[in-house]
Design goal:
This protein is an all-alpha fold. It contains five helices and no strands. Keywords: Membrane, Transmembrane, Transmembrane helix.
């Protein structure tokens, strides 16, 4: 149970930290990032790393549970940084293409685009440093949860 708590705390903390980190970098405080995807640190990486850290400390690095949590974590982090980031890059290009088509047609309200109510979401993946930041956060939360729970 404590491993699940470590993962949930890591995810929540990562989501919360996105607001001030982005605010410092851009000068804009966007509270929608509390529930958004993408950004620094990766909550995906934080959650799976804290779980793997806790499981490794609790059951040992030779346990099957630790092996599964590490492999699961690597897949999640690869997906967050790779596949999802490329999907976000594609969304940027599609949104730019939509704007360019409207400019070239000379009509901002072209009837061929009436069904489109909003642009595709562009920030759905992570840069490698965002995944690393989330992994470091998750590692420390996993350590704290393990050692805090094992005080006698």
């Amino acid at each position: 149970m404590r491993g699940i708590i470590a993962a949930i705390v890591s995810i929540g903390l990562a989501q919360f930290l996105k607001v001030p980190i982005n605010g410092i970098i851009t000068g804009k405080w966007d509270w929608r990032q509390l529930v958004g995807s993408g950004g620094m640190p990766s909550s995906h990486a934080a959650g799976v790393t804290s779980l793997a850290t806790y499981v490794g400390l609790k059951l040992g690095s030779r346990s099957l549970d630790f092996a599964l949590s590490v492999i699961f974590g690597l897949i999640v982090m690869y997906d967050a940084q790779g596949v999802r980031r490329h999907a976000g890059d594609t969304a940027i290009k599609v949104n730019e293409l939509e704007k360019r088509i409207d400019q070239l047609s000379g009509q901002d309200n072209d009837s061929s685009h009436d069904n489109k109510t909003k642009e595709l979401k562009e920030s759905i993946g992570h840069q490698p440093e965002e995944v690393l930041g989330g992994a470091l956060l998750g590692f420390f939360v996993g350590l704290v949860c393990f050692f805090n729970g094992n005080k006698k």
